[in-house]
Each structure stands twice: as structure tokens, then as C-alpha cells.
């Protein structure tokens, strides 16, 4: 520093810890105009310039690009406005980094191949809106042109995947499996078939099963199954006839073998493990309580329905 309080680029570099090349670049870009020059043409900077350089250094360390730094220095935008924008950008960057970390953890756990890794990263990088739109489009196609019970459809559409910003490997794996499932042609045929089945029943004036007692029936079936009650036992058949009567057209004999066989067919389709898996995966993704499999109870009830009285 000379007697009038000015600094050369080399002195600024020593005081700020920035490379001479970087300071010269800032000066060339107009972020740090020289205060004066020596007779030989070397740039000189005063204490105000040093303070300005320290601010530039701080803003750059915080990740602001040169255009934003220039806007702050020229007061085109307040530092608070720029900080707010930068916080939002950092939040998004952190979200993406967390997802990448979760993808890599899932890769290690699954031993994934290259193509699967690409798909996993693509699915994990989807925004909340993109994930919800994927499900809305799925149900649009599954119900298009069909007569679907409004409450039932609203319930099915209500389950939206909401992956946390910092998902666990299990949540990420569940989302990837879920996204693959709703795009799988076989699964789409299954759900479209079930939707068509419901539409046909409504068009024919039949009641929609399950009704409000459905969970109670399943609990009773589960208790009987775990207690070793045979599907043909009187108490099992009493439960089956109660279920059949709730959904049968008026005047239908619930003991009719053909009716029971048709009901068992529909019941079996509705109890497909993939339909159950849909909600189990949503529970993992959204952090809901785990949904236990009802498949043993479904199989027991199907066997009970097929019994010829």
C-alpha cells in the first residue's frame, strides 16, 4: 500500500486471498473498476474498492452468478431480492442432490444395471406436479367413457404420491415401482377391466360391492381363517351369503351356483394382488401406516363363495 492508501492487484490478492487472475477478471468485467493507474498503466484500487471486492467474493462464495453480482453492485436489484432468489435456487438444488443420493443408495441396494439406473434417475427427478399429473392421466384413461361411481372414483384419485424432499431408499424404490406399475400395459388392462366391470354393473342396475360393511366382512373372514375355520363351514357360508345379498340384484338367489361362480370371478379380479400393491406402495411413498396384505383373506373368501350350498 502506498502513502495515499491505494493497492495494486498483487496487494489486493494478498489481503483478500483471491488469485491475481480472478481479481483482474473481475476488473475486466466491470465489477471492480480501478481507482487510478500508475504512470506505467498498472491498476490501483482504494479501500472502497477493497470493500467492494470483499463483497464480490462473499456473493460468489454464496453461489451468485456474475450477472446477479453486477445487479447487486449497481443497485438494479436489492441484495435481499437476490438473496431470496438464490435461496429458492439453492433449495431446488438441495432437493435434486437429495434425490440423487437416494437414487445412488437404491442402486447399491438393488444392484441395478445401467438402463434401470437411467430410468430411476428420470423418475426420481420428476416434480410433485409431474407425479400427480401422471396419476391423474392414469385415472383419466382408466375411466374414460365409463359409468363409474363418483365417490369411488374420487377415492381412487385422492391417493397422490408425495415423495419427500429427502426420501429414504425405501420411499424412492416404492415410487419407482409405483411409476413403473401405472405405466405397465398389463396393470392398465387390469384396472381398465375392473372399471368396465363396475360400469357394466351400474348400467345393469346392480349394486356396487363392496359396501360400507366391507371392512367388517374382511375382519370376520380374517378371524375365521386364522382360527382354522373351513370355507365350507356354516359360519363361513353365513358370512358369504351376507356379502352376496348386499351386492346382488333384487330377487337374486345368492345360493345359485352360477351367480356365485360369476361373483367369485369378479371378486377374484378385484382382489388381484397388483391392485393391493398400488395402495401399499402409496403408503410407503407418503409415509402412511403400512397396509398389510389381504391376499390370504381374499383367497379364503373366494373359496367360500365357490362352495356349492
TrEMBL record:
Protein keywords: DNA-binding
Pfam families attached to this UniProt entry: MerR_1
Gene Ontology MF terms in the entry: DNA binding; DNA-binding transcription factor activity
Domain HTH merR-type: 6-75
SUPFAM superfamilies named among the record's database cross-references: Putative DNA-binding domain
PROSITE patterns attached to this UniProt entry: HTH_MERR_2
Name of protein: MerR family transcriptional regulator
Amino acid at each position: 500500500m502506498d502513502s495515499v492508501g491505494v493497492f495494486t492487484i498483487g496487494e489486493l490478492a494478498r489481503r483478500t486471498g483471491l488469485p491475481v487472475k480472478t481479481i483482474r477478471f473481475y476488473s475486466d468485467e466491470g465489477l471492480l473498476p480501478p481507482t487510478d493507474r500508475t504512470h506505467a498503466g498498472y491498476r490501483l484500487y482504494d479501500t472502497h474498492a477493497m470493500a467492494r471486492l470483499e463483497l464480490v467474493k462473499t456473493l460468489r462464495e454464496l453461489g451468485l452468478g456474475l450477472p446477479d453480482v453486477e445487479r447487486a453492485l449497481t443497485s438494479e436489484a436489492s441484495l435481499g431480492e437476490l438473496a431470496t432468489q438464490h435461496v429458492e435456487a439453492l433449495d431446488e438444488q438441495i432437493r435434486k442432490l437429495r434425490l440423487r443420493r437416494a437414487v445412488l443408495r437404491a442402486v447399491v441396494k438393488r444392484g441395478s444395471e445401467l438402463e434401470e439406473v437411467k430410468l430411476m434417475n428420470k423418475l426420481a427427478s420428476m416434480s410433485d406436479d409431474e407425479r400427480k399429473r401422471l396419476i391423474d392421466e392414469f385415472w383419466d384413461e382408466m375411466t374414460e367413457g365409463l359409468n363409474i361411481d363418483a365417490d369411488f372414483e374420487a377415492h381412487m384419485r385422492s391417493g397422490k404420491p408425495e415423495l419427500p424432499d429427502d426420501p429414504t431408499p425405501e420411499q424412492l424404490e416404492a415410487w419407482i415401482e409405483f411409476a413403473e406399475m401405472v405405466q405397465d400395459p398389463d396393470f392398465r388392462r387390469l384396472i381398465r377391466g375392473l372399471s368396465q366391470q363396475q360400469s357394466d354393473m351400474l348400467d345393469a342396475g346392480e349394486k356396487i360391492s363392496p359396501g360400507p360393511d366391507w371392512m367388517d366382512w374382511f375382519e370376520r373372514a380374517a378371524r375365521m381363517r386364522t382360527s382354522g375355520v373351513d370355507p365350507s363351514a356354516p359360519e363361513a357360508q353365513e358370512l358369504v351369503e351376507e356379502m352376496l345379498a348386499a351386492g346382488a340384484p333384487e330377487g337374486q338367489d345368492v345360493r345359485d351356483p352360477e351367480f356365485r361362480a360369476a361373483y367369485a370371478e369378479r371378486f377374484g379380479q378385484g382382489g388381484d394382488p397388483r391392485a393391493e400393491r398400488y395402495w401399499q406402495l402409496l403408503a410407503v411413498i407418503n409415509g402412511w401406516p403400512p397396509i398389510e396384505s389381504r391376499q390370504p383373506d381374499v383367497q379364503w373368501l373366494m373359496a367360500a363363495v365357490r362352495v356349492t350350498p
